[in-house]
Amino acid sequence: MKRSLLAILLLAGFMHTQAQSTGYNSTARWSTFALQSPETSPEPVSDTCLVFVSNRHVMTDSLRFVDESLDTAALKYFFLQKQEGQWKVYKAATLGEAMKSLPGRKDIVVYAEGMGKTFTANVERARLMSAQYNVHVVMFDYASINSTYKPAKNFRFARGNARGSAAQYLSLLKEFQRARVNNADWISGRKLSTFYHSMGNIILEKMVEEHDISSINTTPFIDNLVLNAACVPMKRHSEWLEKIKFAKQIYVHYNATDLQLKGAHLLTMKRQLGEKITKRQRAENAVYINFHDMAGFQHSYFMNFPYNEYRLTPAMVDYFSKLFTGQDISPQEAITLLTTRSTATSRM
To answer: Are the CB atoms for 216 and 256 separated by under 8 Å?
Structure first.
């Protein structure tokens, strides 16, 4: 009976995700985006700007100019600028070229999302993060939904594409590392954080487990590395997490009543890292934050979303603001920042 109830909840969650993606993939939504010709350059007239690094196929003559499948041959770089309700999308030759177009000097968050995101949905999430936390957002954009698939098949599709994106994500981190070493103007003096939500954590997991990270793993160049509601197995996660030396601080967020991760647990028959973590299996180099008392059944509890009545507490906003601006937060400070009812622990 319990498994049947969880299956129903999981299906409902996936159908909700798919319904949202349908809206983001509509002609009306795509009509608010325009891929610019190679000859045009961004104009410094808007503060609503994002950088996207994508491994989707690009079709320049289509309204939906990026599709729903992976292109592992090369990464594509985009600078996005919103003006009067319209998104202008400029192709860039390199990460540095795209980053130089961002206005102002803000700290940087490299953001990898989970299942069910079209290009336009990722734009909305990146925009919300940029606006709510006053940071520059670099979205790692991979195909995590196919509009023709049913929910269960999309679950497998998204997991497979997250795994298949690990090598390209490593290439992106190498670019950030080179920029830090060379003290590139667009990163000089700024904090750099990486944020992985839900299935986005699969990219990090497979990058560390299956690829040679030695070239980026000598000196920390990332300030905060954040695993949020991680849709990866909890068991033995410390074995790959403790290999990470390229980040100064590592944070793992979990919530035992996260309904979407309960569903993933049911489908994979494995407890998920973002659910509940036993103390004996925790990584020595990570701080673990329990959001159960604050998040309830929520899965995306790191931002306020216009379509969700759930709202972060002021303490949560303060915590994520510090996190995304690269500040070091100790376990004790996390307890103070959040609530006395929550627990924040680190194995020292």
So the answer is: no
Residues ≥6 apart with Cβ < 8 Å to 248: 220, 222, 223, 224, 328
Strands 76-83 and 49-54, by their bridges, are antiparallel
CA distance 78 to 100: 12
Q: How far apart are CA 25 and CA 222, in angstroms?
A: 33
279 has a pLDDT exceeding 60? yes
User: What tens digit of pLDDT does each residue of 160-186 get?
Assistant: 999 999 999 999 999 999 999 999 999
Q: Of 272, 252, 248, 261, which Cα lies nearest the Cα of 344? A: 252
Neighbours of 271 (CB within 10 A): 18
- Secondary structure element (H or E) that encloses residue 250, with its range: strand 247-254
Q: How far apart are CA 167 and CA 325, in angstroms?
A: 26
**Would you identify the CATH topology of the domain 1-340?**
Rossmann fold (3.40.50)
Is 223 within 8 Å of 248 (Cβ atoms)? yes
Contact 319, 310 (CB under 8 A): no
Rounded distance between C-alpha atoms, residue 136 and residue 261, angstroms: 29
For residues 108 and 174, give the distance between their C-alpha atoms in angstroms, rounded to a whole number: 15
Q: Which two tokens stand for residue 147?
A: 């509009």
> Residues 58-93: pLDDT tens digits?
999 899 999 999 998 899 999 999 998 999 999 999
The domain segmentation of the chain, as residue ranges, is 1-340
